[in-house]
Amino acid sequence: MPELPEVETTRRGIEPHIRHRKVNDVIVRHHQLRWPVPRGLNNQLAGHTIRSVSRRAKYLLLGFDNGTLILHLGMSGSLRLVSAGSAAGKHDHVDIVLDDGMALRLTDPRRFGALLWSTGHPDEHELLAHLGPEPLSDFFNGDYLFQRSRGRKSSIKQFIMDGKVVVGVGNIYASESLFIAGINPRRAAGKVSRERMERLAAAIKAVLSAAIAQGGTTLRDFVGGDGKPGYFAQQLNVYGREGQPCHGCGQAVRQIVQGQRSTYYCPRCQR
DNA sequence: CCCGATTCCTGTAGGC
DNA sequence: TGCCTACAGGAATCGG
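The joint structure predicted for all components is written out below.
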């Protein structure tokens, strides 16, 4: 399930193959993703060259001289380079056919992903305009987390998963970061000390960086642009390890539900 | 503004 | 073996 490291892994995987390439055709086989894929994309893109391949939060941005293609992988999406015209499976919803005989193929079984077209500045697009800072930027630090969290009653886990606070921290990395920082996920965000927020910001950066270095986390179906899975799952400390011994103290890892999402933590190491 | 619940979708896993 | 149900999750949206 793509979180920020998986999206960044995808970006790095596809960029060298698609940047400076011209689009020949766009084939949309299934329009109904998170939002409808705009009609007539082919007319916008055909003949235009991909100038940049960037990322904001979990969105991939393909920059053209006449606009930006905004892609989101949802929770089951992946982008891969395939030979143009190769047989499409039932979940292969979109092919962006390039001028070198290859195609960028969006596969997404659960269809929570999105593909949108923006003609203005992408940062001003409604979906991106109100997002919090990038977790790996200098702007995101303990001070920032401390300031933003004062007075907030929701749990620290839900707080760091809020895209208006910081982007790219999904369910897996939220649990992992809180474990590294030694913070109980149920604690009210507004009551976490400045010192602990420093540790948390550092933990989020460390966990995300390590995951990117490993090519992301493949739990079920994630593959990078080269079709290879990520290897970070082997380094997970708590996620999905309910009942198994904590790597720090040996206590059984506990699972709880917060905001309809599973949280994993060690009751001894995280207080 | 803040917060919790609901919603989209389908593959997978567990129960019987 | 097969059927049924619960569950997984990103993030917009809505109701309180």
